[in-house]
Amino acid sequence: MKLPETQLALLEATGATDRTPVEPLAEELGEDPAAITRAAFELEAAGLVDVEERAVEDVALTEEGERYREAGLPELRLRAAAAEAGADDSPAEMGRLVGQSGLEGPEVDIALSNLARKGYGEIDGGAIALGEDPRYDPEADPEAAALESVAAGEADAVATDVLDRLESRGLIERTETTARSVTLTDEGVTALMEGVEAAETVGAVTPELLTSGEWSEVEFTEYNVEADAETVNGGKTHILRQTANRVKDVLVGMGFREMEGPHADADFWINDCLFMPQDHPARTHWDRFALDVPPMAELPADLLERVEDAHRNGVGSEGDGYHSPWDADFARAVALRGHTTSLSMRYLSGQAAGDLEPPERYFSVEKVYRNDTLDPTHLLEFFQIEGWVMAEELSVRDLMGTFTEFYEQFGITDLEFKPHYNPYTEPSFELFGRHPETDELIEIGNSGIFREEVLSPLGVECDVMAWGLALERLLMLMYGFEDIRDVHGTLCDLDLLRNVEVVY
Ligand code: PHE
Asked: Radius of gyration over alpha carbons of the chain, in Å?
């Protein structure tokens, strides 16, 4: 029998009784483990060896885990400082203990929450008292011991719940790999006894083989298309981007044109044009990402004047203003846009694309930024599907019909509308859709018909209906994921991003 060299070497190194793991074999033979694995599968296909596969978990300390292994877990350091300060008699002031234990930044919160969890201490009114009934002896803290075991490569000896805890604390990383080992089959033993020779096989054509003409004599290695190969994950367009493109196609198909404009804009375009009073809570520094840049000088003077007049005096004979302060400097201040309705204002005012005559339809699918509290449905940024229709006579029916038509394209047919309040639209509606997995109604957008107080200063004399929809929420309804962080940011679900298909 003739076998390619690597296969022959592997066959000869494989035992008939003991399973030999591939990794040390590769080392012994001075070959790449991948090449030995490939050879093992080829020998298996020829019936000469058995390949056994086993999933193994590799556990390693993260950088933070390593740091705590050296310096001690934050809660233990805090506990030690408390013990030293005599906190078993009377509670010790927290700031002092933190200083003494040398804890810094996020370590302080980590120390406090784990101190409480393990019963090492009780925190009350800025003071720490040693816990009466700690869950563990601080000298024998199982998590601290586990860090040592993991570092010593003895994670097997650590209880699973402790490993789970360390993993959720981000102190260890577990990775699954496949370990393979080989044994000779009876056929393999027989073949070796009968004698196997090395076949000169060639894995790839080289320029030398071609010029020397040798290529016509040599034997080429056969491809094994069934061999287990490493999965290669190529680059791919993110599903948010894919869905954004699909949304754009749908809206273009419905006769809309795309708006463009700045992410950082004057408050004038983001809020004042929308008849948002300058003392509206959404305009305070809590919600808004103010930028430390010079105010926007170039605002159209006549528009600025008309907007100020609407705020101060209202619009029309019945109109009434806000009776609240209005300051042009405030309007010029620059912030990250909290909605893309700033673009709608730029277009409706004629600033962006010149004067517009009804009927007109415009949209954008762009990022907006809000200083929200992070949770499964809120991030500091998201994509907003902004849109508006300008026409002589528009009613709520037109708005509902447009949404029904739009969402149908994505398979969403059970929209619900709820009356709402916006300072800039009347009437206003929030849109809801049902989550396919949790069956909860989730808010997917906000809409309405612009008020006279918005349109009149812009110089628009007909009706305009408008909306802002969340692209991420549309995706949730389409794909059923429950946490926006699955598709955005560093915690995203890579499997989802790799495997989900956006269907046109
Ligand atoms: N700007 C609103 C929001 O971000 C959406 C909206 C746009 C509502 C236009 C009505 C009209 O929620």
From this structure: 34
What is the 3 state secondary structure string of 58-87?
A: EEEECHHHHHHHHHCCHHHHHHHHHHHCCC
Q: Which residues line ligand 1 (CB under 6 A)?
A: 339, 341, 422, 425, 446-448, 466-468
Q: Give the Cα separation of 422 and 466 in Å (integer).
A: 12
Strands 2-4 and 197-199: parallel
Q: What predicted TM-score, i.e. pTM, was given to this entire model?
A: 0.62
- The Cα–Cα gap between 74 and 384 comes to 41
- Per residue in 105-153, pLDDT (tens digit) is 899 999 999 999 999 999 888 899 988 889 999 999 999 999 999 999 9
Instruction: Output phi, psi for 298, to 5 deg.
Output: -85, 80
User: What residue owns the CA closest to ligand 1's atom 8?
Assistant: 447
Token pair of 240 as six digits? 């948010």
**What's the token pair of residue 217?**
């004599």
For ligand 1, the distance from its centroid to the CA atom of residue 49, given in whole angstroms, is 67
Crossing angle, helix 33-45 and helix 22-29, to 10 degrees? 110
Task: Please give the Cα distance from 205 to 201 (Å, whole number).
Answer: 11
* Number of alpha helices (DSSP H) and beta strands (DSSP E) in the chain: 20, 19
Q: Give yes or no for residue 284 having a pLDDT over 80.
A: no
Between the CA of 189 and the centroid of ligand 1 the distance, in Å, is: 76
Query: Above 60 in pLDDT, residue 102?
Result: yes
